[in-house]
Amino acid sequence: MFQNIKKSWEDFFSLKMLILNLMPTIIGVVLWSLLLLYFSDQILAGMEYFLPKSWQNLSNDSGFFASIGGFFIKVFLYVLLGFFIIILTIIGNMFISIFYTPIVISYLRKKYYLDISIHSFGGIKTSILYFLKCLGWFVLFVIILSPLFFIPFVGFFAILIPHFLFFKNTMLFDIGSSILSQSQYDLFLSKNKIKNYQITLISYLFSLIPIFNFFVTLLQTIIIARYILDKKIEGNC
Question: Could you identify which of 58, 95, 133, 141 might form a hypothetical disulfide with 162, taking C-beta atoms 3.0 to 4.6 angstroms apart as the criterion?
């Protein structure tokens, strides 16, 4: 696994992959910079609306202790806003990755896996529909778990867990369907459940690094594609 990640880093910094990653990165930076520039006040106001009533009263009260409490509430809201932006950035980058996944797989195959035959199923349209389906489930879970968001520490896990599952399912399907046939993909999922969680969790953790999360989806695509190609060689799919 760690050998996979080491080689994936090397591929990530190759000229071809850097060029491929340039446009998604520019789109992500421009999009979220504009959203923050023009809508940060409205977003924060909306988040304050969902705060517990006692927190809202504390923010509106005057006095020394109330002002200290209000300051910490503001800090918490900005941290939560930054966390949401990271999550949304990952989702946007994952959607864009659907379009360059075949290019990444072709690059890896020509460089390392010439003897492997590719039996893909579906296509970009199928991956987009699956992405939207998983996104719908993710949004539903976020709505259900939203009362937990304002509990310190617990709130972050209430977002992270459903988002990781969204990441895992979407990335495995997008990349797996570009390498394996339907029957091979089903076998791959059933035979490698624990390892699928391990490799996708390690890949997912990279995307929680601020700023780097604008660039990292390509690296995650390379890591998971290498992993599936290796499993194909081993006969585990």
Answer: 141
- Fill in the amino acid letter for 182: Q
pLDDT for residue 203 is more than 80:
yes
Amino acid at 110: K
80 token code pair:
């939560």
Q: Which two tokens stand for residue 24?
A: 């998604």
Q: Which two tokens stand for residue 4?
A: 């996979």
Q: Are 86 and 120 in contact (CB under 8 A)?
A: no
| pLDDT value at residue 119 | 84
Candidate from 32-46, 109-123, 208-222 with smallest mean pLDDT? 32-46
pLDDT at 136: 94
Check if the beta carbon of residue 205 is closer than 8 Å to that of residue 163. no
* pLDDT in the model for residue 56: 57
pLDDT score, position 126: 92
